[in-house]
Amino acid sequence: MDWDDLRIFLAVAREESLSRAGRRLGMDASTVGRRVARLETALGRVLFAKTPQGYAVTPEGAALVPHAEAAEVAAQAAAEALTQGGLTGQLRIGAPDGCANYLMPQLAARLMDEHPGLEIQIVALPRVFNLSRREADMAIAVSRPQTGRAAIQKVADYRLHLAGHADYLDRHPPILGPADLRGHRMIGYIPEMIFDRELDYLSETGADHAALSSNSVSVQMQAIRAGAGLGIVHDFAIPFAPGVRRVLSDRIALTRSFWLLRPADDRRSARLNRLAEAVALGLRREVARLESLVDAQG
């Protein structure tokens, strides 16, 4: 049994689809299917059952998964040893879109400068990632999971404030206290699309609904930049939005946390442990850097 066949088997088991596995592996779906069939023939076992939803792992396939994952860890360790300690290979990180847009690009740039053999994929989705299906090697979350077997690490606290664009603020009466917010257009999340309770910011302003809403924090920020109204924004995003400034920063201030999640079994991988530490440290530093720029502006 060769490692390449096990690598393809793992991709199908995680993606539950030949086409998705093929995209992840950089090969066409028909080739993936042939390789899976070859492995099944070699083992004399049926590893997948084809269903209307995709390819489901059979009990025999499930028994093979931990052995394939152990081979994966060994292959990654061997590759790392040959690069004299440098981190190599692909790293897929899932993150909510605020983190993905305003923090991850700088972090990825620094990591790739430090480790030229590293390839980074950033998956920005406004929902919780399914690590058991290997949608990502690790994911950033905005609340600590209460269930599941993920390895959990707190990364950093971050701040949010009510903000508006100077053009919008100049066209409206001064906002000296929370009572002055009445009559202003508020911008926030679509209520039924809030995938984590920690994202329910609007109540902090005393508003009961948003005049303009989106499931994307980046869209919300662009609406604020366009002068559409006021909204709660991440302080670390403000340096990317010229003209946006905090409102009632001494009265309306929120603190949230980022958490780094990984499949529990990945703690056996020295490579992934090093990557997790690098990601956590990089995010912590980037949040602090960007928030300090906002503090300097007052």
From TrEMBL:
Superkingdom of source: Bacteria
Source organism (scientific name): Paracoccus chinensis
InterPro entries: LTTR, LysR_HTH_N, LysR_subst-bd, WH-like_DNA-bd_sf, WH_DNA-bd_sf
Transmembrane segment boundaries: none
SUPFAM superfamilies: Periplasmic binding protein-like II (SSF53850), Winged helix' DNA-binding domain (SSF46785)
Similarity comment text for this entry: Belongs to the LysR transcriptional regulatory family.
HTH lysR-type domain span: 1-58
The protein's name: DNA-binding transcriptional regulator, LysR family
GO MF: DNA binding; DNA-binding transcription factor activity
Keywords from the named record: DNA-binding, Transcription, Transcription regulation
